[in-house]
Each structure stands twice: as structure tokens, then as C-alpha cells.
Design brief:
313 residues; 28% strand; homodimer; seven-stranded mixed β-sheet
Chain lengths: 313, 313
């Protein structure tokens, strides 16, 4: 059972109340907590040793990544992060110096984005370190960009470059907070998500949430990272660079859709506003479900119907 | 290194911002998120299989306890819980039916307190189940009852009965939300905390947070639970019932201080408002640091200077 299937099964169990504007299933929950003109974003994310980082990962980078993953989710709603809490599961005898280093990595990133760390707690985790971040953010009321708003004919765009993130980017990525806020304010994307499962998987999430639409991606337009290209040429586990860009995941770029009539104006404005960050128009939302890849030489082929899990198998 | 010492070490690292009214070190963080007349409470709490519950614990009770622990922290601030997020670390092959049961236990308790569960996420935890709850709550602005307000001469009171919680209460306890709100509104306690480490340990937290005060407890006034008395008479690991009441922990009762002049009026009003819940005046805040126990027969003895850890050794 995939996480997606599990969430679908659990959703009917979850009690709601008047605070909840958007519940389970988006990058963050969206809440109305009575702040005039604003909604509150609420997100948690956990990382486990051996799954999201190794015992050799420097603790500063573990802390940094844990917070950055949550910040990326707030960015994908067009919001601003405000306050975080930290939960640590520590093996017995874990070096307090490493805990401090972990917090330093988190605190450095938090400070740069004016995020407060208002506390946290530690508990015992016998075999391996885990950490969970709970993050609050703010977004103008009604301004949160959801996964569920993609429309037929929308242009599909993605920031940065994709694939090969395990070569380092997954620990050092910059959450696209400025970019997400600017996009939400200036171009009201119909749908947005951050790329954690891979372009194909996360686009699948958007399309399913938007009523079962599909997408056609244009292969030459995919912003394949240099790391993915190098990996494709070397190593026993090499996979084609395009496949890496579609499925590696942990890119933490922003994937969004806008009315196709706005795409050219957006690409121009982006270049002026964020000259150091690539923005690519990679395809278009269509009626036929699933994600399809158009190759000028070999034609159209299906990429993924159900997201990352299916494509990987 | 105890959690208390670790937090003291980490506190200077934590960035703050204008949202944070009370940061690390209380039952919840207190935030000003712009809601007129209200502050936001923010809390996370994690439970780990083998530490906070066993593989045999029914999953409904695991879910219930995880949320109840957080609700108890909100109760100890005099607040009302609003929205929770759930983070699950699941061993590979974990039965989805057990996950549903876990959520059901949580959802039942959430519904009874009008708390929404606005989503969550699952991740892989190879060896053992863990779950972490992030909870938001609300409290009138300036009305949160902190640990740090105890004053010289205050009466010390505690709800319910203490000790022997492992015989069942730790899974089934009722978070004292109505009681906490009523106390905050009607009697403005100077300091309040929920009893998770044991009366001696948690009173130690209050006294240290309140500028290094001390307390004298009156032994015959301690509300020793029946379970602690039964345990004291049976079993190889029996400890005196009074020691159990002071140190067992996981009682999740409210421990608070009020001006001694208010104590009798409060006890009377409590009996009318909460006839089914015991309230005991167990001692008084004094200048001499540490927690002291007065026994009418054997006189005064020190209980704990640094909380649970010291007393247990």
C-alpha cells in the first residue's frame, strides 16, 4: 500500500472543524485561525536515519534538510514560514555535541528566513535518530496555491533542474520561498507542488487532485540536471538522464500550472526577477489521464499513471 | 545529560521572531499570530514503541494516548486545542488495519474535544512504530498559565490521584481541558503544569522556572492512587505508595499554584464544578530551594532537588 492509498483510506476518519480550510492531501493544511486577512499554514515532516540521511551525514546538514523540506512545502503554497517546533528521537548515548550541531544547521536556515524555533522535545529512539519538524506559516486569506486547481490547457512549469539530487542537492537545496510568494502574488498559479517524489510522481498528484486530468510533457524541454547526465554516463546503477529527471525526487523545485496565455509573460518576468534560477515550460495539461512524454523522434509514450511508485516498478 | 540540561544548552541557539510570546521550556509555545484577543498554542509530542507503549498495546489506545498527551499540555496552559497533524513512522509491512485503528483512537478523542485532524504524513521506521503529534490551540491573549509564575507562599494543588499510572491510566486518562480552562478563567493560577514526570519532578520544573523557589509538601495530603497502594503491597518491584505518587509520572493531572488566600474558596468552588474529580492542596511554595516532604511522624526530608532524575537515582 502506498502512502497515497493509505491517506485515501484514512481521510474519512479525520474529524474536521471550522478552522480547517484545506485538510489532508496538500503540501500544507490551510487553517482559518481568526487572523484578519490571513490563513495559517500547518505542516509536519519527519526524517529517519538510514532513510533520509546516513549515519555519516554531517549533523548540521541533517538539521538543515529537515527544516528545508518543510519550508519547501510552505513555498509550494505561496506562503511565508513563521514558527517551527523540533521533535528529536535520540539513540541512547547520542553525543550532545551532535545534537547542538543539528540544531545549528536548523537555526542557520531558520534565521535566514526569519523563522523562529519556539522549542521542541526529545525522546528515546533505540536504534536510530529521527527528527520531525512542525512548521507554521502564513498566506493571504484565499491566496494559498493548492494542488487541486490545474485546468485543461494549462502550461506546466518547473523551477531549477531535476534529477541526481542524491549527489548533494538534497542536503543543500534552497527552499524556493521568494519564488513561491512571487508566483502566487504576480501570476496566481492554478496549482503548485514541490517536487519531492520526482516530476512524474508529483505532477501525478496535481493531476489526480485536479479531477483526474492528464499531462503531456515535451522531452527536450525537461531541465535535466548536470548531475543526472553525469550519473547516466557512469556507474553500474546508471539510469537514463531523462528518467532521473522524471523520477529521482528530492529536487525540491516548484512545479506549477498557469493559464497557457500567461506562460510567455511569466517566463519573461521570471528572467528579470530570478536571473539565477532556471524556469522551464515542460508541457501542458490535457484531458487524457496520466502523464505522457512526447519525444520528437519516437513519439508519445506513457510515463506514469499513478506516480512514482508505478513508474519505478 | 537529561532532557532539561539539553534544552538549557540548546535554548541560546534557537532563533526567535515577533510571533513568539513564550518559546522553549513551557508545556506549549505561546505565539501571537495576529488573531485579535487570542494567542496560539503550539506543541509537539512523540511516542516510540517499547518506550511509551508496547507492541501489545491496542493501536486505538496508542493513537488515543499520543493525542491525549498533547491535549494535556494545552490543558496545562488553560487553553483549548484546535487542530492536530499526525506523523507516523511505520515499520515495513505494518498492517494498514492497525494504522486505521490507531487513527480511530485518535479521531474519537479529537472529536470529543472538537479538535480537527488536518492531515499528516507517514515515513518508514525500520525497527519500531513511532508517532508524533503536532497540535495547535488557542488561549485568550495574556491568559496562558505558564510554569514560571509561582510565588512565595502560594498554595500548591493537584487534580486527581497520583502514582501507579502504568496499571492503565496512562493509556486511558482524560486530559483535564475543562478543568484547565475553568481554573485559568476563574482563579488565574500563578503557575501550572501537567504531571508527566511525577509530582516531584514537575513541581521541580515549576520551581526552577519561577526563579529557584522551593516547596514543602505535606505527606498526609498527597492524593495517592489506589493503584499505587495496591502495587506497594504486592510484587517484587513494589515501591512505597507515597514514592510512587511523587515519582511514577504519566499521571497527566494538573499541578498548579494559587495565592494561599484563594485556596479555600477554590477548593469549595471546585467541588461544586467538578464533583467527580478530586482536588488536593498538597503544600506550599517556600524560599528554601528544593522539594521537601513533611511527615507528621518523621519530620522534614528532601525529596528532589533536580526533579525526577535525581530522585530516581
Amino acid at each position: 500500500m502506498t502512502e497515497f492509498q493509505l491517506i485515501e483510506r484514512l481521510k474519512p476518519l479525520l474529524p474536521a472543524n471550522a478552522c480547517v480550510v484545506v485538510g489532508a492531501g496538500d503540501d500544507c493544511a490551510v487553517l482559518d485561525t481568526g487572523t484578519p486577512g490571513a490563513h495559517t499554514l500547518f505542516k509536519t515532516d519527519a526524517m529517519v536515519e538510514g532513510i533520509h540521511f546516513t549515519p555519516e551525514t554531517p549533523p548540521e546538514k541533517i538539521g538543515r534538510k529537515a527544516l528545508a523540506r518543510c519550508l519547501s512545502d510552505v513555498a509550494a503554497m505561496g506562503g511565508s514560514p513563521t514558527v517551527a517546533l523540533v521533535t528529536l528521537g535520540l539513540p541512547p548515548g547520542f553525543d550532545p555535541e551532535r545534537v547542538s550541531a543539528l540544531y545549528r544547521g536548523m537555526a542557520d536556515l531558520a534565521s535566514r528566513h526569519s523563522v523562529a524555533i519556539a522549542g521542541g522535545e526529545t525522546t528515546t529512539s533505540p536504534e536510530r535518530l529521527f527528527l520531525s519538524i512542525a512548521l507554521l506559516g502564513s498566506v493571504p486569506a484565499g491566496g494559498a496555491v493548492l494542488r487541486s486547481g490545474a485546468r485543461l490547457g494549462d502550461a506546466i512549469l518547473v523551477t531549477g533542474e531535476l534529477g541526481g539530487s542524491l549527489d548533494g542537492w538534497h542536503l543543500d537545496f534552497e527552499p524556493r520561498l521568494d519564488e513561491g510568494r512571487w508566483l502566487a502574488r504576480e501570476f496566481s498559479p492554478h496549482a503548485m507542488i514541490d517536487v519531492s517524489d520526482g516530476l512524474a510522481g508529483d505532477l501525478g498528484h496535481v493531476l489526480r487532485a485536479s479531477g483526474g486530468l492528464g499531462a503531456e510533457l515535451f522531452k527536450p524541454a525537461l531541465p535535466v540536471s548536470r548531475a543526472a547526465k553525469v550519473r547516466a554516463r557512469t556507474g553500474d546503477l546508471a539510469k537514463p538522464a531523462v528518467a532521473a529527471a522524471l523520477t529521482d525526487g528530492e529536487d525540491f523545485e516548484l512545479l506549477f500550472t498557469v493559464a497557457s496565455a500567461d506562460a510567455v509573460r511569466l517566463l519573461d518576468a521570471w528572467k528579470r526577477r530570478f536571473p539565477g534560477v532556471r524556469l522551464s515550460c515542460v508541457g501542458r495539461v490535457q484531458e487524457r489521464p496520466g502523464v505522457w512524454l512526447r519525444d520528437p523522434r519516437s513519439g508519445l509514450q506513457p510515463v506514469a499513471a499513478g506516480g512514482y511508485e508505478h513508474f519505478a516498478s
